[in-house]
Design a protein that fits this description.
two-stranded antiparallel ribbon; transmembrane helix; about 25% helix; membrane; single chain; alpha+beta; DUF945 domain-containing protein; transmembrane; 3 domains; DUF945
Length: about 525
């Protein structure tokens, strides 16, 4: 009897040992499958190339080696504006060595497939540059825990550093920490990122910084390649200080392209010649949400800040809440693919702007012909001159592709209702800024005094137009705030409930306005070309 018990126990021990010895090998196979899926996902991106890949699988541990390189088109429009050191690092290949430990308790007290630690290897040129910033620390720490189910968690960390040059350039980077929880087959993932701050002193040129960046997001895949889900970004403080405000090398359009990778900077004024000496943004927040319903996409975005100091002017708070409903998913995919393609081409702003407009008219045609609805749920901005308050909606009903070739037909199928409340002083200042960009005043005509005369003339023109529209019932004016309800339907425009009729209501005769100055004549001006 005792011999039988001993035999049974021995058999059980042998089975357990066999399982314990064989399980790491089996989990190694499953871990390799997960890493293959991750690499396939990496290969689909628009800015990286996988040049080499190898996998050496062992019983308890394995090693995967991947050599990647940023595509030559990466940052195509801004590479020449990047510092030489940054450009050198971006142009060099990077080798990722994944040290894969597979077993039930690899790197964790709970059962997992594997725990992966990634070692980044750089070329001697790139390493020499990175060592100046990070010293003996690795510039990036990447760990990946793969669960038994195939889901897992990635942890990404960039260590902090304090860098200084004799030229006066100083960079105080306080690090970044990000956690990504992903589902099996990477159908969805949640990310949580924090960055305490960055402070950069550009010698005698200026100073830029941000504090307390937080980004949380949930992403999932629907029926198309579009990313669905939501995201929340908040930054406590952002500051830009320029010592030379006439420096034209500051390109806002290229900065936007760099951050968004959407090339939307082509629609932003590229020159930075009139920037103020200081810009400060406090409590910036951005939230997005995108859902899929059948073949349609519904999206919502919220943006705002508590305060914006733009030179001597203070704006805020700002609250924007906008949404788009019943958008054709196939058209969005086509536009997204087209813009991704454009982002890899070194086009100037004019070419890029024309290409994007063409893409909207062609690839994005379905966005207009399936009864979309755009809602501006809220736009409230406190200006130095008062509060701007706008809300309403715009949509197209039964619009055909052929209608888009004729403005009149397109207008007849456009429906919009908007409520506006805008301080008159804001409209005046906007018109003045546009006029100053359009006219150049002859210095012999009075210099600053001549500009003041132009400003006053524009104010008188706007005041006359406002009084005329108020008398005819198109608008209401309350304590200097212009209010109206705009309605567009069947090709007809209604303001404050009254149909707009340009034929029966001629423009005011500005020639009969009083002179802007009794002592100084209106200065000579020429248009800028």
């Amino acid at each position: 009897m005792n011999k039988r018990i001993v035999t049974i126990v021995a058999a059980l021990v042998a089975v357990v040992l066999l399982i314990l010895l064989g399980l790491p090998y089996y989990l190694g196979i499953k871990a390799q499958q997960s890493l293959d899926e991750q690499r396939a996902l990496l290969a689909k991106n628009s800015f990286l190339l996988i040049e080499k890949q190898s996998y050496e699988r062992g019983w308890f541990s394995s090693t995967e080696t991947i050599q990647i390189r940023f595509k030559p088109s990466f940052f195509a429009g801004v590479q020449q504006q990047l510092p030489d050191n940054v450009r050198t690092v971006l142009q060099q290949p990077i080798t990722l060595v994944n040290h894969v430990h597979h077993g039930l308790f690899a790197g964790s007290i709970r059962p997992v497939r594997a725990h992966v630690e990634t070692e980044l290897q750089f070329t001697p040129q790139a390493k020499q540059i990175l060592d100046r910033f990070f010293g003996q620390n690795a510039p990036l720490k990447l760990e990946n825990t793969i669960n038994l189910s195939g889901s897992g968690q990635m942890h990404v960390a960039i260590p902090k550093f304090n860098y200084e040059e004799l030229s006066g350039i100083k960079i105080n980077w306080q690090g970044l920490d990000s956690t990504i929880d992903y589902a099996k087959d990477f159908n969805s993932y949640d990310s949580h990122t924090i960055s305490p701050g960055l402070d950069v002193i550009l010698a005698t040129k200026g100073h830029t910084s941000y504090q307390d960046l937080k980004l949380n997001s949930h992403t999932e895949h629907g029926k198309t390649s579009l990313a669905l889900g939501n995201s929340d970004l908040s930054i406590k403080n952002i500051t830009f200080i320029w010592n030379d405000t006439s420096d034209n090398s500051i390109r806002l359009d290229q900065l936007v392209n760099l951050v968004t990778n959407l090339q939307i900077g082509a629609f932003i004024s590229p020159a930075g010649s009139s920037i103020p000496a200081k810009i400060n943004i406090q409590d910036l927040k951005l939230a997005t949400s995108t859902q899929e319903k059948d073949q349609w996409i519904n999206s919502n975005g919220k943006f705002g800040f508590a305060k914006l100091e733009y030179g001597n002017d203070v704006y805020g708070p700002l609250d924007i809440d906008a949404s788009a409903e019943h958008l054709d998913a196939a058209s969005l995919v086509a536009i997204n693919n087209k813009i991704t393609q454009l982002s890899t081409q070194n086009l100037n702003n004019e070419q890029l702007r024309a290409a994007i407009v063409s893409a909207v008219r062609n690839e994005g045609q379905g966005l207009f012909t399936h009864d979309p609805l755009i809602k501006l749920n809220s736009f409230k901005l406190q200006m130095p001159q008062g509060l701007i308050d706008i809300h309403g909606s715009l949509g197209f009903k039964n619009l055909l592709a052929s209608d888009m070739q004729q403005f009149g037909l397109m207008l007849n199928k456009t429906e919009s209702e908007m409520d506006f409340a805008i301080p008159q002083a804001v409209m005046e200042n906007f018109a003045i800024s546009q006029a100053r960009a359009f006219f150049t005043v002859d210095a012999s005509a009075g210099g600053p005094e001549a500009l003041d005369d132009i400003d006053q003339t524009i104010r008188l023109m706007i005041d006359s137009a406002v009084k005329s529209m108020q008398t005819k019932g198109y608008i209401q004016v309350d304590n200097g705030v212009i209010k109206t309800h705009l309605k567009l339907m069947g090709g007809k425009l209604y303001l404050n409930g009254k149909m707009w009729n340009t034929e029966s209501e001629p423009e005011p005769d500005y020639a009969e306005l009083p002179a802007a100055s009794e002592t100084t004549s209106v200065p000579q001006a020429t248009t800028n070309h």
